[in-house]
């Protein structure tokens, strides 16, 4: 009698377990269905999102969303033009810092020298020359060597009017010994080749030399040799 009772009890538990198992199987099936629906739904949406998330830079390299600079760094005007179809999200490109000549004739009066001292006839002392001097007549247009934003315009007795343009990747370029009248103002966006000032003889610094532009390149605030960054040179 007691044995039969036990058997009944086992059977009862077994039946209960069957229901529980069926419940679990049903739940698992529902969960699997939901997960599948969500995943396949995302997969179906993904192709629409890819063009917006990825950018092709000037050299045709695809830049993933995670590589894009934060929105507070404004993208260059021209660079956004071609790929603006992705919507109103700014399309930033990270171009290599390959510069053009700030003076069209590109005639170097005094080159960059940081490993030896050169005589400065104006200052009557020997010093390094951490810029490149481009010979040019007074009034010759001085052009931005790369896309950027005018960061400062200062006039001093020594360096005349000096325009600093800030570029991406920590680079900035300085155009010194300009005349006081410049066609840009602080905050202006400039493109490679845009006129940022005109050669003058306003600055005393290097004034014993023929009229010229004193041009400097800085990376992270440190003067570097501009010659490395012209087309064909690959010291990035
Ligand atoms: Zn110089």
Question: Can you describe what's shown?
Answer:
By secondary structure, the protein is an alpha+beta fold. It has 2 domains: 2-86; 108-229, Glucose Permease (Domain IIA), CATH 2.70.70. Helices cover 24% and strands 29% of the residues. It contains 2 helices and 14 strands. Strands 3, 6, 8, 9, 10, 11, 13 and 14 form an 8-stranded antiparallel sheet that branches. The protein has a two-stranded antiparallel ribbon with strand order 1-2. Strand 4 and strand 5 (125-129) form a beta hairpin. The longest helix is centred in the first third of the chain and has 52 residues, at 2-53. The chain is elongated. The termini are far apart. Residues 41-56, 58-71 and 73-93 have low confidence and may be disordered.
CATH superfamily of the largest domain: Glucose Permease (Domain IIA)
- What is the molecular shape? elongated
> Ligands in the structure?
zinc ion
Largest sheet: 8 strands, antiparallel
Percent helix: 10-25%
CATH class of the largest domain, anyone? Answer: Mainly Beta
Count of domain modules: 2
Short descriptors:
236 residues, eight-stranded antiparallel beta sheet, two-stranded antiparallel sheet, 2 helices, Glucose Permease (Domain IIA), alpha+beta, 2 domains, 14 strands, binds zinc ion
Layout of strands and helices, then pairs:
Blueprint: H1 2-53, E1 55-56, E2 62-63, H2 77-81, E3 108-110, E4 113-120, E5 125-129, E6 132-135, E7 141-143, E8 148-156, E9 160-166, E10 171-178, E11 189-190, E12 195-198, E13 212-219, E14 222-224
Antiparallel strand pairs: 1-2, 3-6, 4-5, 6-13, 7-12, 8-9, 8-11, 9-10, 10-13, 13-14
The structure holds zinc ion.
Zinc ion (ZN) binds next to loops.
């Amino acid at each position: 009698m007691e044995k039969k009772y036990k058997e009944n009890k086992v059977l009862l538990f077994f039946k209960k377990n069957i229901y529980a198992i069926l419940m679990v199987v049903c739940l698992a099936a529902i969960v699997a269905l939901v997960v599948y629906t969500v995943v396949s739904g995302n997969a179906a949406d993904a192709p629409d999102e890819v063009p917006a998330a990825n950018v092709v830079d000037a050299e045709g390299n695809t830049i993933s969303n995670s590589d894009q600079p934060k929105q507070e760094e404004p993208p260059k005007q021209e660079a956004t033009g071609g790929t603006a179809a992705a919507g109103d999200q700014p399309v930033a490109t990270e171009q290599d810092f390959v510069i053009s000549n700030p003076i069209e004739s590109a005639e170097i009066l005094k080159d960059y020298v940081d490993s030896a001292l050169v005589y400065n006839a104006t200052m009557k002392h020997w010093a390094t020359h951490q810029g490149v001097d481009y010979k040019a007549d007074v009034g010759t247009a001085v052009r931005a060597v790369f896309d950027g934003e005018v960061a400062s315009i200062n006039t001093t007795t020594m360096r005349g009017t000096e325009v600093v343009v800030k570029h991406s990747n920590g680079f900035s370029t300085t155009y010194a010994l300009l005349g006081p009248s410049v066609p840009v103002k602080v905050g202006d966006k400039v493109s490679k080749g845009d006129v940022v000032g005109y050669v003058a003889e306003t600055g005393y610094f290097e004034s014993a030399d023929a009229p010229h532009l004193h041009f400097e390149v800085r990376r992270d605030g440190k003067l570097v040799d501009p010659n490395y960054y012209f087309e064909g040179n690959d010291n990035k």
